[in-house]
């Protein structure tokens, strides 16, 4: 089922804090370390409470933190703690579902005879007795993990690491991570700092804790134990750096001048030795266009792959227009490099779609259950391929960037788009000067499905009436489309085996068909008109 994708519900901007002095950085580290220690204590208390948590215990924790910081800092700390706990619960539920899928798959395959082939949706039996025996042992391991995960879920126990589990494990494998202990320690301390404050509508510039004026001046309300470091009234510290958001800067200024809520987050990039400030706020969901209006002028079908986006423009009848386009990206290297590659590819795609004033059709992909090693067995190359596709990153980036440019997005069912696109469109679209790939054909299939047309190029008439008596042969042509009943192109050679070469009749000339009373029939077959009088 195709649908128009709703826009994002929030805005996030980031700018670098340039020109910080050594004193400014020292104050930021002291405040972040102090609040980070309070966040760790609060998270420990929240995890210990488990499912017994209620509003009263929340108020008790907030009162304890208020004396060590401030009322607003305590509110931000407890809210961040609840968000971490809720995120851990969602991850725990996803882990249980993954374990259940693996256990069910192994049990199904163990029950099948050795070497039995599977179907399109279910896996077959194992190839050898040795593999069968190894999977029985793995089944016991997965069942034990599933039992422990279910017990933790029932008891409300979660395991959260402030700073990240990946960075924690790197401490014991510094050589593999290409780190030294001092560099790791600096990154670990920076990731555990807490310097974020929620916004408040009606307060000055939308935030009393981290306040930024429209001209870019940044001031921070210091916690009570660090109030002696203030360089401004009311226990505030004003940084020498100024911020000026290059992207959506005017929207941010309009918001702070109206004293509307804006949340801020300050963090340090240890590798680059830079400080950044992120501003975010919620926005009302944008009004989406009706699907019929989006389909009116055609659209661009996009097929997502591991190293590029294949796109093809389609008109409103589902016919490919022009040549296919490919927007490549390289997903090797650091996370920032991968994110920049995805951003650059999407920018080129969106600008191309905006020049033609067309919507974009994408697949509603979700490879959460497709990466399981129990489902695909030894197909390590295929598992690596689908695991490397940046589906979540592409989806988030595409929605926000398309909404900013005013380009509608249509999500379609991804079932069999690559297979049927190659079956029905790859060969017809291949010419002597253009080689159509499987991905290009899949883009056409995605676009046709978004337009409401079947992926097949044309539907044949009933065998009992192989003509245009039941309607035009191309199903996407409406009754009011001009030219739908024009003559079809002449195909060389005979139309049937009973006609010798060179004697074929024009398919579009209805007077040339061998029917009674037609001029194409032989003269001896025609019946003369009866005389009116003897």
Written description of the protein model:
The protein has 534 residues and is an alpha+beta fold. Helix content is 40%, strand content 14%. The protein is globular.
Overall structural class, as computed from helix and strand content, comes to: alpha+beta
Largest sheet: 6 strands, mixed
Q: What percentage of residues falls in helices of 4 or more residues?
A: 25-40%
- For the record, give the distance between the C-alpha atoms at the N and C termini, rounded to a whole number: 72 Å
In short:
This protein is α+β, with helices and mostly antiparallel strands and 534 residues long.
Primary descriptors:
single chain, 534 residues, alpha+beta, six-stranded mixed β-sheet, four-stranded antiparallel β-sheet, 13 strands, 14% strand, globular, disordered C terminus
Topology:
Elements: E1 3-4, E2 10-16, H1 22-49, H2 55-66, H3 71-111, H4 129-155, H5 165-170, H6 181-192, E3 196-197, E4 210-212, E5 217-221, E6 236-242, H7 249-257, E7 263-269, E8 274-282, H8 291-295, E9 299-304, E10 308-314, E11 320-328, H9 335-356, E12 359-363, H10 373-376, H11 380-387, H12 391-405, E13 409-412, H13 417-426, H14 438-451
Parallel strand pairs: 9-12, 12-13
Antiparallel strand pairs: 1-13, 2-8, 3-7, 4-5, 5-6, 7-8, 9-10, 10-11
Helix pairs in contact: 1-3, 2-3, 3-4, 9-12, 13-14
């Amino acid at each position: 089922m195709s649908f128009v994708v709703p826009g994002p519900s929030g805005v996030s901007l980031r700018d670098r804090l340039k020109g910080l002095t050594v004193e400014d950085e020292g104050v930021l580290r002291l405040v972040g370390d102090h609040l980070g220690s309070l966040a760790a204590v609060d998270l420990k208390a929240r995890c210990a409470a488990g499912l017994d948590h209620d509003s009263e215990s929340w108020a008790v924790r907030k009162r304890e933190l208020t004396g060590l910081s401030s009322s607003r800092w305590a509110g931000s700390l407890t809210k961040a703690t609840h968000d971490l706990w809720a995120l851990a619960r969602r991850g725990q539920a996803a882990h249980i579902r993954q374990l259940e899928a693996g256990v069910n798959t192994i049990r199904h395959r163990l029950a099948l005879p050795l070497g039995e082939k599977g179907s399109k949706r279910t896996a077959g039996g194992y190839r050898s007795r040795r593999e069968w025996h190894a999977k029985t042992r793995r089944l016991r391991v997965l069942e034990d993990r599933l039992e422990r995960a279910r017990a933790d879920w029932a008891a409300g126990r979660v395991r959260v690491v402030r700073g990240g589990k990946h960075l924690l494990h790197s401490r014991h494998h510094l050589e593999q991570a290409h780190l030294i202990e001092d560099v790791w320690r600096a990154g670990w301390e920076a990731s555990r700092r807490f310097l974020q404050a929620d916004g408040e509508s009606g307060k000055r510039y939308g935030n009393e804790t981290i306040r930024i004026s429209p001209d870019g001046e940044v001031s921070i309300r210091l916690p009570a134990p660090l109030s002696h470091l203030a360089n401004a009234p009311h226990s505030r510290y004003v940084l020498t750096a100024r911020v000026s958001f290059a992207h959506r800067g005017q929207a941010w200024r309009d918001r702070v001048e109206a004293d509307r809520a804006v949340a801020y987050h300050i963090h340090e990039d240890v590798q680059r030795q830079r400080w950044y400030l992120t501003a975010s706020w919620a926005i009302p969901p944008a009004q989406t266009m009706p699907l019929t209006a989006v389909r009116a002028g055609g659209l661009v079908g996009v097929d997502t792959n591991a190293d590029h986006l294949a796109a093809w423009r389609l008109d409103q009848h589902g016919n490919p227009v022009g040549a296919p386009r490919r927007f490549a990206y390289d997903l090797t290297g650091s996370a920032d490099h991968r994110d920049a590659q995805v951003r650059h590819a999407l920018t080129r795609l969106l600008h191309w779609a905006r020049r033609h004033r067309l919507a974009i059709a994408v697949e509603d992909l979700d490879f959460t259950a497709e990466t399981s090693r129990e489902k695909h067995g030894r197909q390590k190359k295929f598992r690596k391929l689908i695991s490397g596709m940046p589906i979540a990153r592409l989806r988030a980036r595409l929605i926000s960037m398309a909404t900013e440019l005013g380009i509608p997005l249509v999500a379609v069912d991804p079932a069999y788009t690559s297979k049927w696109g190659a079956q029905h469109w790859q060969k017809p679209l291949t010419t002597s000067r253009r080689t159509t790939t499987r991905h290009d054909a899949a883009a056409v299939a995605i676009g046709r499905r978004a337009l409401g047309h079947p992926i097949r190029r044309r539907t044949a008439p009933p065998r009992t009436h192989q003509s245009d008596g039941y309607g035009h042969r191309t199903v996407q042509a409406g009754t009011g489309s001009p030219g739908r009943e024009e003559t079809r192109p002449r195909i060389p050679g005979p139309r049937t085996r009973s006609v010798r070469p060179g004697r074929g009749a024009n398919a579009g000339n209805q007077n040339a068909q061998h029917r009674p009373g037609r001029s194409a029939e032989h003269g001896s077959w025609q019946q003369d008109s009866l005389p009116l009088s003897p």
